């Protein structure tokens, strides 16, 4: 069978790092016998050297006609999009190039590459994202697009977009996972030395006022609660760890973490649940108790809200990928959840 062909469109002013992401991620995806699962090729508006934002150019062998052969087209970011970025319209040359794309081709953008898809009309009425720094401008320029500046990537079936720079890795891994399953994507992630799934969204990277040096941190409270996720936790208990009032602690926590204490704790509990589901055969009621959700129903509610699948479906997908059965997953990572922690009466909100 012919390999799934990924064609990367290299535009003048491109970022070499982003240009390399599809080649690295899709190029490392292998089948059970070690066979490649994708063919990755690069094209430009004209074959030849393409200037980058660095002190070198890249030599591209193919012109835009290659787009007609693609199963997936990836548009990385460029710092020289001209009328696409300034006016929301394609240049004649770029429009002619995109006209080669066949109907039904999967379209992917990395960072400001989304401007190209939006200017071509591919994102009208669809969810999309881009680098948080450009999100407001992107929305103003393309009001028909449903911009979500808080996520690392969006998946609308045949059109997918990523946030800035490294979020392109998250999106490409997501595509590999969607195409070939978690085991293949996890193998690519290990070879690339990146997490197979990065929790949270762009909110954690948006610039915020830095707390003054004399202000106390909430680090100790976060470390304290990670050892007690299976117990009811009250906001007053957290504030006490830092010798702060509840009001001061809540404000300081938001400044440092970007979300409320309640959202953060639910995220930690979901992350621990993920690890237990992946690495143990514990029944759902016990997973719920170990993670502080109390009941299987509460566990299901929060896992579904955070991950988009039920705990049973998540375990079925990831349990076979391995891991140390003895690891209880207590080295959790950030994972904001849209639901506040309603696990225990009087718990953190």
Write down the secondary-structure element order.
EHEEEEHHEHEHEEEHHHHHHHHH
Largest sheet: 6 strands, mixed
Q: Assign a percent range to the helix content.
A: 25-40%
What's the overall geometry? Answer: globular
| Rg estimate, integer Å | 22 Å
What's the total number of strands? 10
Number of contiguous helices: 14
Q: Let me know the average pLDDT.
A: 86
Q: Which parts are unreliable, with pLDDT below 50 for 5 consecutive residues or more?
A: 208-214, 320-347
N-to-C CA distance: 54 Å
By secondary-structure content and strand pairing, the structural class works out as: alpha/beta
Query: Reading side by side through the largest sheet, how are the strands ordered?
Result: 2-1-5-6-10-9
Chain oligomer state: single chain
Q: Would you kindly provide a written description of the structure presented here, covering whatever features stand out?
A:
With 349 residues, the chain is α/β, with parallel strands linked by helices. It is built from 14 helices and 10 strands. Strands 2-1-5-6-10-9 form a 6-stranded mixed β-sheet. A two-stranded antiparallel ribbon has the order 3-4. A two-stranded parallel ribbon has the order 7-8. Helix 9 packs across helix 10. The longest helix is centred in the C-terminal third of the chain and has 19 residues.
Structure at a glance:
The chain is of the alpha/beta class and 349 residues long.
Which SSEs are present, and which pair or pack?
Elements: E1 4-10, H1 16-27, E2 38-44, E3 48-51, E4 57-60, E5 72-75, H2 83-87, H3 92-98, E6 106-109, H4 114-119, E7 127-128, H5 135-141, E8 146-147, E9 153-155, E10 159-162, H6 167-180, H7 182-192, H8 219-226, H9 235-241, H10 246-257, H11 261-279, H12 284-290, H13 296-307, H14 311-318
Parallel strand pairs: 1-2, 1-5, 5-6, 6-10, 7-8
Antiparallel strand pairs: 3-4, 9-10
Helix pairs in contact: 1-6, 6-7, 8-9, 9-10, 11-13, 11-14, 12-13
